[in-house]
Write a structure and sequence with these properties.
Rossmann fold; 5-stranded parallel β-sheet
Length: about 170
């Protein structure tokens, strides 16, 4: 796969809650790396939401899941994704689109982000084997005692097992 030239974007920012980080997220980071050379994963912190994992746990799990990939950083995003992207020095935002519903939402968000920051958004479609995987699905499987390990990297599977085995 060819990389975007130096005259174009070379650092992508991929923001999300990543609660938890899935194999679909990993797929998008790998493909973003092939396109842009550098990717910063921004783990969103929304104090109004109580996540399955804390923001610190999500950052640690993303880092563990991405270990060994050169050119990837993981940071916390406490505010707008575009502010996180600017702070990281990114040239472009990357988002995943699994369905038409995702597409409609992401188009509106991409336009808003461009209005706010001037940054464009690249929408990537996940590999077919990950097209149905979402963090919500993974949390539901784990919460009901199911094995979600086929949908998440090994560090996340271990963390889910530990969390769900607690009394």
């Amino acid at each position: 796969m060819r990389k975007i030239t130096d005259a174009m974007a070379s650092h992508a920012f991929f923001a999300g809650s990543f609660d938890p980080f899935t194999l679909g997220h990993l797929d998008l980071v790998r493909r973003s790396l092939a396109l842009f050379g550098r990717v910063t994963v921004g783990v969103a912190h929304d104090p109004a939401k109580r996540g399955h994992f804390s923001v610190i746990e999500r950052i640690e799990l993303a880092r563990a899941s991405l270990a060994g990939l050169s050119g990837v950083a993981v940071v916390e995003v406490a505010g707008l994704a575009v502010a996180g992207a600017r702070a990281a020095g990114a040239d472009v935002l990357v988002r995943g689109v699994r369905s038409g519903t995702d597409f409609d939402y992401e188009i509106a968000m991409a336009r808003t982000n461009r209005d706010l920051s001037g940054l464009d958004t690249v929408l990537l479609v996940p590999e077919g084997e990950y097209a149905h995987v979402s963090s919500t699905l993974v949390r539901q499987i784990a919460a009901h005692g199911g094995d979600a390990s086929r949908f998440v990297p090994p560090p996340v599977a271990a963390a889910l097992a530990r969390k769900e085995s607690r009394p």
